[in-house]
Amino acid sequence: MRLFTDKNYPIIISCARQLVPWTSREVESMGYRIIDSTENTVVVRGEMRDVMKLNLKLRTAHRVLVPLLRADCRNIRDLYELASSIDWENILEADGYFSVSSIVHNYTIRDTRLPSLYTKDAIADRMREKCQRRPDSGGENRGAAVFVYWERDQAIIYLDTSGEPLSKRGYRKIPGSAPMQETLAAACIMALGWDGRTPFLSPMCGSGTPAIEAAMMAMNKAPGSLKGHFAFQSVKGYDSIIPGEHAPNVAPRQKAGASPAQIWKELVLEAKSEENAESIPRIIATDISPEAVENAHSNAIAAGVAPYIEFKDCDFAESPVPEEKGTVFFNPEYGIRLGTYEELAPVYARMGDFMNEKCRGWTGGVITGNPDLAACVNLYYKARVPFFNGPIDCRLFIYPGCELKGMNTP
């Protein structure tokens, strides 16, 4: 395969468990037709521009992958032979750098590091044979990237066009304790139905991720615009002119084509022109820890959204609540990593009191991995949306109107 000149190939968008509905919604809103999906993937068809656009704009996805080979694979030697059969000399720069990651569920593999190691060796050996030299390789998130998915007797080798996962936007310089992943925060905000036009309140803000993601969504800031490097930028041919391609805003018009690098630059410029910071509603982030608020503010600066978020260190019950109705979102401790039920039950009860007394008429949301604690909120909920926060099976409880149980309950 030649990523930058081939047309209409399958593009696999991977995401965390339970995020497929939200990734699908994003993909369809961008004009793509979904041709397949699994528990962790959404599949579309496209070309190089689409690979770039998806990496740039998706908020809930993990990686954008291009399949290179799928075949029967019974053991590690089979994997080496399969990887050796791919024309890496047309994909990787001989003087470049690449990394390999893998997910393996095969009974013959006891050491989960072996598949990545054998794939690296196969690539290096093929490149040395075809080019008389080979690229460097290692575990760093730079250069090109290869991903192996091996389930039982089937293996798929992908070109990973993202490299470092898309969930790592690059703004969270100070993560804090038990931080919420950026992709999960974006999905929760979508599930709450927030449209970016009404106030958004994030008590217990921690490292500030929900407020930052809300601000980015409100101003239509492409999350990929914050990242310094994508793996597709290290694929062979990235700086070469492709006849028939166009990037009129950055490429000299007299040339009969454009390079992928020029096309990427134009996509980023286009995304920047689509940002709108003129009508962002009030976005408020509070935390009882002054250090957490300071860290959240630093992260917001790194994300370029600090001017649009109000930060305050205070108990969540003292959070300022705008008169205009909006959305309030809590990501409290679950009593799993931090805290106990006895310690947290009164906190959850106070959260319910706060939403009912000060946010009546708002849409409320609480994500938790502890249903017993969720019961302490004592508000009527219309939905329990399943999510995973890392390995923790969670539910996002959505409270329309923030009303007590029994009040207008259907």
Note the main attributes of this structure.
8-stranded mixed sheet, Rossmann fold, alpha/beta, 17 strands, about 20% strand, about 400 residues, single chain, VC0802-like
In short:
By secondary structure, this protein is an alpha/beta fold.
What does this 3D model show about the protein?
The structure is a single chain. The protein has 410 residues and is α/β, with parallel strands linked by helices. It has two domains: 1-166 and 224-274, VC0802-like; 182-221 and 276-400, Rossmann fold. The chain has ten helices and 17 strands. An eight-stranded mixed beta sheet has the order 2-3-1-4-8-7-5-6. A seven-stranded mixed beta sheet has the order 13-12-9-14-15-17-16. The longest helix is centred in the N-terminal third of the chain and has 18 residues, at 114-131. The termini are far apart. The mean pLDDT is 94.
